[in-house]
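pasting for ref
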Amino acid sequence: MSRKPVQAQSGERSRTEVNFDKPQLLPQLFGEYDSNILALEERLGVYIHARGQRVVIEGSAEAVAHAREVLQELHSRVIRGEDIDTGLIEAVIAMSSEPPLTGILRSDIPEGTGGGAPPIMIRTRKKTIVPRSVAQTHYMRELMSNDMIFALGPAGTGKTYLAVAQAVAQLITGSVQRLILSRPAVEAGERLGFLPGDMKEKVDPYLRPIYDALYDCLPAEQVERRIASGEIEIAPIAFMRGRTLADAFVILDEAQNTTPAQMKMFLTRFGANSRMVICGDPNQVDLPGGPAASGLNDAVRRLEGVEGISFSWFTAADVVRHPIVGRIVQAYEGPNA
């Protein structure tokens, strides 16, 4: 691998070497045609050259130290079987800009070795999920330890996906008996008119993101079997009225599009041995009347600080989709919005 060195960002030029003890994994780390290394070079302003299991990083002292930390974290994730893509690279770079990575996620320490806190992860039938941002790390801890969690922030930050993954993990282990996944059937700025079919066929288009997350965590045949048996229920929020949701993991998605009355009705369905996660973006309200009409915003105002209820806040910096999505969110919600 040989390329023209990039210009160091600033400061005195520095050089460091990193030796990896599993050189057979380096092709996965570097990516096809060294695409991951090229992304790191462009993003961090360093030059990275590899020969065998020895990797040389050149650039400013600060950039070299940053790149070394990111490269080592990415290598540890390859060892755990994670796929390295642009989104993960951006997430690890963002996490390394916060407190030291090892203080956020001890991914290199096996559980039970006494070397520190065990890794934060969610295990499902199809994959093991680890946090891709500092906010996700906090959120995943809340999902494991609290009974009612509000996850608030822009699209693409993993709010619903991680909640579904945790729900699936708890269903698999038997700590809950069923999953109840709901969202309001509100159109996002357009009118779809009459929809053909029975009730399920009418509401399924609104619930597609929840199905997508389920199929990513469970084999398709298990999803279908558990839906048929009632272990997994996916329904619009109107179907929650008059029920008590016990022994269940309950998720409300797109909660910003509930009215205050709907939100109160939903929250008071909470039953024994249950966990409830309310996901939404307070700034993306499709109701007539905008954010002032949102039951999510009303609930945050009323419930923040109430014992037993936790809040996880996400920002554009936590977007884990394509990096351009985070920049789009910032453009719409930043100071020039």
